[in-house]
Write a structure and sequence with these properties.
Length: 298
């Protein structure tokens, strides 16, 4: 009975002075000693009190030791004993993986574009029906040779959705150097230069989207061509200084490549086809090949 009372006194000490001091004392009691105390206590109670009363005391004593033993095991890690897996704190759940933001290279919004053009002429036979006269007599029929021209283009447009954009395009092909030569002799009778302009409204169609976007272009609008030639011999029916307007179409295939969400480059090959007036009659067609940079405001 004295042993049970000692255990109860230590339990009261645990409650009064704090778990860390009481636990230090209980931690020094070995399991073998605890079992010996419990065996002695049971024999003593059996000899001193009745069977029923002993059961009540045993239950009370068992609850005391269970409480003290569980507390000792729970805090054993603080005193050097190896913690059991169930004693370890639960690991926090892993943070949900943050998906990388996806750049939308096809969002709706306005854009501007500026680029250079290399215009390939398609009107070498512009004046193939002209005739050079010398001394009032026909000298020979002539042909023309026109060089290609550099130029520039400016575009302003709006991306309506992922697959369609509309834009206005201004193009100026600066200088088509040309000369008139005899078809037979090859003599040069005239030299000069010409230029071409186009202002069209275009629709662009994108079959796929992403950082690289191919597209097709169709447009229509105003086309103008001018030339200034000077002959060394009289020329009959020669229209040397032309400034002709026409309605025409623009076709193109290109690809846009995005460096960032807002900045990119575009390469395009097109065809400008006048369909009215003298420019259509003479076949003053051009094939503009362009490389440009653009900026999107979204």
């Amino acid at each position: 009975m004295r042993i049970a009372l000692v255990a109860l006194a230590r339990y009261n000490r645990f409650r009064a002075e704090g778990w860390w001091r009481a636990l230090e004392g209980f931690h020094l009691v070995k399991r073998r000693t605890c079992r010996a105390w419990l065996s002695k206590a049971l024999r003593y109670l059996r000899n001193q009190i009745g069977e029923n009363q002993m059961k009540k005391e045993v239950v009370s004593l068992f609850c005391v030791f269970a409480l003290l033993g569980g507390t000792t095991a729970a805090f054993a890690g603080a005193y050097g004993e190896k913690e059991q897996p169930e004693e370890l704190p639960a690991s926090p759940p892993p943070a949900p993986a943050m998906a990388a933001p996806v750049e939308d290279f096809a969002a709706a919004g306005p854009y501007v574009q500026l680029g250079g053009v290399y215009a390939i002429e398609n009107f070498d036979n512009l004046v193939s029906e002209w005739t050079i006269y010398q001394g009032g007599d026909p000298l020979e029929r002539v042909d023309t040779k026109v060089d290609n021209s550099w130029g520039y283009q400016i575009r302003a447009g709006y991306r309506i959705n992922r697959f369609v954009a509309v834009e206005a395009e201004w193009e100026h092909d600066v200088d088509f150097n040309g000369q008139i030569k005899g078809k037979d002799s090859g003599d040069v009778y005239s030299k000069g230069s010409g230029s071409a302009y186009a202002l069209t409204a275009n629709g662009k169609f994108y079959p796929i989207t992403g950082c690289i976007q191919p597209y097709a272009l169709v447009g229509a609008g105003w086309v103008n061509a001018q030339n200034n030639l000077h002959t060394t011999e009289p020329c009959v029916d020669c229209d040397l200084n032309q400034d002709r307007d026409a309605f025409g179409f623009r076709f193109g295939l290109g690809v846009e490549t995005y460096v960032t969400r807002n900045i990119g480059f575009a390469a395009e090959a097109g065809y400008v086809l006048p369909v009215t007036g003298a420019l259509s009659d003479y076949g003053v067609d051009t094939i503009p090949v362009s490389l440009s940079a653009f900026y999107r405001f979204n």
